[in-house]
Amino acid sequence: MKKTSILLLMYLQIALLTGDFLFASVVVEDRTYKATITRDIWGVPHVFGKTDADAAFGMAFAHAQDDIKNLTDNITLYRAEMALKQGVKGVVSDYLIKALKIKEMVVEDYESKLSIQVREVIEGYVAGLNYWVDLHPNRDYQSLLPITKYDIVSGFVIQNLFFSGVVGAIEKIQSMDAPASKRMAMNQNPFIQSADLVLGSNAFAVGSTKTDDGSTRLIINSHQPLEGSLAWYEAHINQ
């Protein structure tokens, strides 16, 4: 058993040094885009495309292979249709997105405020998603077709709103009190004053004079969940 473990470790080390850990390549293409997706021994997709748009096409296809449920759930959110799936639980986000006219703003500004290079990447990604769904006609998410460039850009706008704390601001207006996270922190430690409290993820910075190799290091725990639409997705894109 020990000998087998040593041999496996040696193989992994050699594979990492030589790049011989990529396998199971597949070429995906439609009338406009073409990309190669190669999986490594951990299943991580390495996407190769001649252009940025080709790479985005392949990235979307690989992403759909791995996580189509969360992708389609996000599209439902971006279209302000969560109440159709979640009932009352989805009403608040739907109302906020519609009240702010996110979709209308994106449609109006898409051509004028996004460069042609950015639009090409977005449209390549959209084509990759639609292509994957086209190849799987018996799935529930067929009703989402066609996924559009406006869906994807709306998602970026909505995510920025949510991460900037707009939901917390609305909750504060509703309660006319300190946000729950601050109240919780102050209850746990009476020495913390609300006005001075800065909330955020754990982060540690180590200066170059404190490391053996002279590197400056930043260690961050972003508190992202291990699954769901907010979990990190790992991929390697080459152009």
Report the sheet with the most strands, covering strand number, pairing sense and barrel closure: 4 strands, mixed
Annotated CATH topology of the largest domain: Penicillin Amidohydrolase, domain 1
Oligomer: single chain
The amount of beta strand, in percent, is 5-15%
Distance between the termini: 42 Å
The main sheet orders its strands as: 1-2-3-6
**Total number of distinct structural domains:** 2
Q: List how many beta strands DSSP finds.
A: 6
CATH architecture of the largest domain: Orthogonal Bundle
- Determine the number of helices (DSSP H or I, runs of at least 4 residues): 9
Mean pLDDT: 80
Q: Which geometry do the CA atoms define?
A: globular
CATH homologous superfamily classification of the largest domain: Penicillin Amidohydrolase, domain 1
Structural class: alpha+beta
Helicity level, as a percent range?
A: 40-55%
Q: Segments where pLDDT lies below 50 for 5+ residues?
A: 3-12, 14-18, 185-195
